[in-house]
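Work package 3, deliverable 3.1, input record:
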Amino acid sequence: MLKVEHLSYEIEEDGKKQEILKDVSFEVKDGEMLVVTGPNGGGKSTIAKLMMGLYKATEGKIWLDGQDITSLPIYERAKAGIGFAFQQPPRFKGMTVRRLLSLAAGTDLPKHICCGLLSRVGLCAEEYLDREVDATLSGGEMKRIEIATVLVKKHKLCIFDEPEAGIDLWSFAMLVEEFQKLHTEKKESLLLISHQERIIQMADRVMIIDGGQVTKCGPTQEILPYLTGEAISHPQCLKNQGAAV
Amino acid sequence: MMLDKITEKVLRMIDGEGFKQEGAFNLRENGISICHGDSEHVKIRKKEDRQGIDIYIDKDTNGETVHIPVVVSSSGMTDVVYNDFYIEDGAKVTIIAGCGIHNSGCNDARHDGIHTFHIGKNASVHYEEKHYGEGEGTGARILNPVTDIYVGENSIFTMDTVQIEGVDSTKRETDITMEAGSRLTVTEKLMTHDKQEAVSNMKVIMNGDASSAQIISRSVAKGESIQTFHPRAVGKAACHAHIQCDSIIMNDAQVRSIPEIDARNVDAQIIHEAAIGRINSEQLLKLQTFGLNEEEAEGVIIENFLN
């Protein structure tokens, strides 16, 4: 289980301190799917990055299965069982898709395993295995390969930062199925940053982040009404109702 | 013949296929050809007027590999060798050259390999040249290769050069002349560290219509090392050329990349790209999310970049 207590994150810009996240607390239970949503610039991706250790929290604690991972470096968090899919994955000159997947798996993967993984994210495997993860791949292709790097092995917690971004509708439908499958199996906890209704509807719980604060968190059916119409157009309405963690 | 352990080790580093005293081969050690063999289609002859060999590859050569490694293990030695390759029309051959220096003394050890290729029509030649240095001595390990290549009509020449470690100083000069319909691919991989220096000057002249050249250079400069690349493509006909130089710079290293394109025909299409930069921090972060620490991640990025 992931437990986050009173997490804050601030940066310094032009000599001035700016609070990006303020006193955020939440949990992701074993096998649970939590979707974090909210307006752009609200702090959603910052939460994801703080969980993986890409950013260091200014205050607060992060626990994974009872272990305090707040000060662990990225690679130790990965070893502790966290998988992370970047919103904008980096490209690697000279590295093949197969090699990247093998690195993600921590072992040399046989061809048929790689092919199976790529098929799960909607890529025609044979065409991609020996291609370089470089500028010759489109943004959508990169994104699907990125998701495959997380699916390649079992984690305690998988974090996907806007998995839908840059993916065509057909592939998106396949990805939704994959997330559904992962969620149904309940073997891994899922933390997804998303704006997509289909992904949000799949969640056990939804957390809305706005202005660096949790403005709403609860079971999906309870939160969904706040994400339609007036509530999403006027995030201030959400703030006024206070956070319910 | 039996080889000593140092020579065997160096050969393993410079000959990826594994050097064997079989087929057509010539092993040069400390300025002397210590063993050589011919095959049905490839004949190797010692030069009469100067150091070196002439390699004759006949038209019926089809997929054969010729191994001509050089090992210098004597500190203080300067070995200059002239090797000429005569490749007949239609021959298909792989040539694995390469030089390794083991210097355990305080004097410099140096090898200048001067190779000339005369390639006929419709031939296909793959040439690999790996440079490597080792040894606990304080003397420098120096390699200065000179390669002149004439590529006949409709022939294909691919050249892979690799210098990954241990060479203190290298100055590479490569001149290539291409006839109509010929194709050239050059891949140059280089890593320097400490105070090493590397210079690579290359000139490709495309004389014939429909000739095409691709030159890819990838390098990593660490420590206080200095690298200079100057690939030059000259288009004198309706031809295509693409030069791509990518370098990763680290620590206090210096990298100069000077791709030059020179069109002398209205139908010549020549492109160059050059980029120098540090290791992308996002790449490091991504690999760390796989469980690699920063040092391991850096190693993987470099290894794949030079792959």
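The longest helix of chain A spans residues 169-185.
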